[in-house]
Amino acid sequence: MSSENRRMTVAKPDLLDDGSDTRFRDLLYDFFAFGGRLEEARARFAAYIGLTPPQYLIMIAISRAAAAGEVGVAQVAERLHLSGAFVTIEVNKLVKSGLVAKQPHASDKRRVNLSVTPLGSTMLERLAALQRPVNDALFASLDRADFEMLSGIMRRLARGAKQALHLADHIVADEKAQARD
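Structure tokens predicted for DNA-binding transcriptional regulator, MarR family:
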């Protein structure tokens, strides 16, 4: 195997161009650049309303999900691809700040229903005036078809990412075990 092939970062044929991973690397560079800008936007949105980025995301998720029905910690954690323990800690901070309310679940006392308080709703409405033009600018190059395609692709990538990270952990653990033997 040539040294160039030993440094290839992907082997799946669909991700290679004529046996090269250059286009895949270019995709990742662009993805990381855009992802970094999204993180910057999220941090600015959160700071605008005095929250941390995770608290901002959790509050938005509660607001959107509660409009469609009951929402609890597990639903928020699943939607945001976060652990339930982390969401619980952050929700408790939002409750203490008066931005989120917790009510006991009607039929399952182990669960709670979450909702954004009137104060939290006022903050989110103020924030939306900033989000609209920034998000429009971030995604200005997409038409409806692009948006639909990207949305589906991102959903599939997000679902598969956790499994890929578990694979990385397993490979590293195996290498460490082999090095000890």
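The radius of gyration is 21 Å.
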